[in-house]
Specification:
- The structure is a homodimer.
- Chain A is of the alpha/beta class.
- Chain A has 19 helices and 14 strands.
- In chain A, the strands form 4 sheets. A 7-stranded mixed beta sheet of chain A has the order 2-8-7-6-5-3-4, with helices on both faces. Chain A has a 3-stranded antiparallel beta sheet with strand order 10-14-13.
- The two termini of chain A are 34 Å apart.
- At the A-B interface, helix 1, helix 2, helix 3, helix 5 and helix 6 of A face helix 1, helix 2, helix 3, helix 5 and helix 6 of B.
Chain lengths: 550, 550
Amino acid sequence: MRKFVAQRTKSLLKNTSTTSSLLFNHYSHQSSSLNSRYYNNINNNNYTSRFARFFTSINDTTSMASDKSTPPVTVESLNPKVLKCEYAVRGEIVSLAQKLQQDLLANPGSQPFEEILYCNIGNPQSLGQQPITFFREVLALCDHPTILDKSETQGLFSADSIERAWQILDQIPGRATGAYSHSQGVKGLRDSIAAGIEARDGFPADPNDIFLTDGASPAVHMMMQLLIRSESDGIFCPIPQYPLYSASIALHGGTLVPYYLNEETGWGLEISELKKQLETARQKGITVRALVVINPGNPTGQVLAEDNQGDIVEFCKKEGLVLLADEVYQENIYVPEKQFHSFKKVARSMGYGDKDIPLVSFQSVSKGYYGECGKRGGYMEVTGFTPEVREQIYKVASVNLCSNISGQILASLVMSPPKVGDESYESYFAEKDGILQSLARRAKTLEDALNNLEGVTCNKAEGAMYLFPHIRLPNKAIQAAEAAKKAPDAFYASRLLNATGIVVVPGSGFGQVPGTWHFRCTILPQEEKIPAIVTRLTEFHQKFMDEFRD
Amino acid sequence: MRKFVAQRTKSLLKNTSTTSSLLFNHYSHQSSSLNSRYYNNINNNNYTSRFARFFTSINDTTSMASDKSTPPVTVESLNPKVLKCEYAVRGEIVSLAQKLQQDLLANPGSQPFEEILYCNIGNPQSLGQQPITFFREVLALCDHPTILDKSETQGLFSADSIERAWQILDQIPGRATGAYSHSQGVKGLRDSIAAGIEARDGFPADPNDIFLTDGASPAVHMMMQLLIRSESDGIFCPIPQYPLYSASIALHGGTLVPYYLNEETGWGLEISELKKQLETARQKGITVRALVVINPGNPTGQVLAEDNQGDIVEFCKKEGLVLLADEVYQENIYVPEKQFHSFKKVARSMGYGDKDIPLVSFQSVSKGYYGECGKRGGYMEVTGFTPEVREQIYKVASVNLCSNISGQILASLVMSPPKVGDESYESYFAEKDGILQSLARRAKTLEDALNNLEGVTCNKAEGAMYLFPHIRLPNKAIQAAEAAKKAPDAFYASRLLNATGIVVVPGSGFGQVPGTWHFRCTILPQEEKIPAIVTRLTEFHQKFMDEFRD
């Protein structure tokens, strides 16, 4: 069925004719019974424009008028941008994993493994990571503030979580955690976040620049919605990239302009490559509007050096590009020789102020050491736009009213965690450090194991939550994949899943140099499971190579 | 500044030339240093299509290639769909209110009122409504499950909230409330919701038809994104309508096709009007794809009669329209002669099964008696689409990973509240009944007060949270509004705000029969404040009429 749909989709995309764009589509309407009733541009509060009647009769451009009913909704009649969008992280391989999991539940022992290990997605708590206690204490108290005054509460919650909950409630008008907030998020929580950014960067941050969102994804969509006017607008993205970007660009009808990271230099981001690709894009008539940088990298795990970041800032400044900085893995750094520097800090260090460069930094509560994916909290810090453009960003945010308040609270907490001297500090630090140290060990163990496999090389995971090994597949395996109508890396990943229960995402979901094959594997399974994973992976790979070796 | 921007926006919208739509916009890219590197349709896991290279050179259609940098981001260079979108509920009048509130804080006594009363938005807890205790107990326990086993917890939480929290945690894989869930939401929570729908309707509901979302707004956006291909696609909306619909249609580039509710018959939805407007739209070349019905009505407050709903179902069935049923006010009914019937129940009662009519029902935790706007929970029940179309809906949901888990839990709770015999039942029922009875009294008091004003008539608020009075303004007031470059209803609303601190939304934000003027006012201020509001409103209106009476 899936294949059938894909083919029908493809044929639709080939055959759909282009339609011209009419900017004013509120058509005038006439009514025989009520002549004074006409369609009055209802979206506009402005008196002048409301009376100006910008009606474009679509009669002029089409002749589709018909008495027949609208045909039923089919895949062919859906928005082609939706059909084009793909998101491999929850794609075909995950459907297969869910099927296998159901089989395992129904018939234990029916598979050569006991459980499915979801290494496809950065979802730490789904694999057993425990939440940070202090954060959850505060969230629970803000959810049910009537217990704050009760004596039993002192026995259940730390003193500083109770104090913090009071502080947060006092920042929320009417202490109403059940009310819609300001469309950018509760002002007091934005104050805390701005203070956290200042402490991190050593440069001022303005709470009015913060837009709290339900995770980073809606923030990315919002920026794409604002910047993309048509397929002639391009967004520069790294290849490999996190497929939210390709999906969002497809949904908003723009063009993804690729720049390749250099695997040989540890997924280096080279300015010469940016220049070359920008020139190519411009020659093709693309207006490149923004540059996406993911630092630390997803799926590639590299951490950019500060001078490299400076070059990227210069490049964006010179070329007039909005710098979209995906910095959601800013807390996930595993090597002592690397440090996270925000692009805003780098730009400010170079002397560029708010007026010099449009820069959006995305942050999320889903990543870091906290990994609170289910809370859907995050923010974007929006700098370097004119007040008029900012007003439009605010308007789009206001259509969705606000992001969820628990997510807002958590976003403020991760940017202002307990400090030395607070009752929770020691246990908080132990939890945080334990998770980060363990992640570093897991990354190293898996990286070494992958590098020991025949034909596999794997760059170091300096940060983020993933490894992205390069697998050199024998020609026989590539032919077998072709016969199975799968990409070679998808063929490898589905064989791996069927043999071991380990779910990884084929590199083709992220983009890769054509003719090379990779997969993305998270470093998130609990540490005690890592040795067994290494064994299963090694055994599988050896058998796979034995089967297909040229 | 605002006006200046509005004018520039308008001029931009007038001048922007149409661009032809290219469906394949991943252009091929060449690289001198790495000839084998070319842009490899990264969004597609399908082997065949990944190798088919659907590259359309944009060179053929544009000649914009340039060596110069991209011009800076200005309002003129933003997506024109964004510029066109408006959302009056958080528009100009609210900006003025926020300014006045700051003035009041800085200089108490500087205004002729002591506080701003936000009657612009259905946000009950912002005006002092307290959350339902049972729901908040369960949410707090799910946020911090480690206290579930502690003895102090028994003293702080009801026994059934503890039991319910355990049940919910057991439904969540790994009890991980901090993990991303299935993209449609946690399966066990969808089971509870489906059971709640079955209990409400007396017809089966399938948990696989439920998509949990961050409130109803993202669900509405998702359906618009799927259905709207271009401005030739129309979405039927009531006038007056909730401006989320006009905003979402504008953002997705479709055409709002209006049908007018009949104010004279209590905002009646007449099939003859639907037929007439559909014919007009089709004559203009619009493919009308879906019909939005808001029941109970927003901003109009009417509750549809069951036989009227049956006629609407027949109409959609005959005309091939997707029925988008905004049923977020299903719990808010204030008159004994009216009852809520879901459109799915009505369709099933008529003998129409899942295959007969595509129908989407939107529900939210923000409304009802619970009014948990800040939790951003909600769902859509999607029926009557083919599996292939459903797969596309799932794909779009999966790009955003999942909705927030607290919102998901709350959505399941409002559809399965405490039952007779549960420890919390009595207090739960008392809280619920107290809120609904009070809302009914407030609606009646405000309705009567409005009907007592010179030149004002106001239909009954049978349901929802709003009154939408018709104000007949003297010619002098209309001229004064024109001189102030405001719509007459916006002029009235800003005068009202400046004199009383009461924030209402001008009718022009929702749409109204041209030449008529209205405003939307929520019934949500706390009951003890209603008499003072009535007095202030009555005094203001009399003075306003004295000033402008012809």
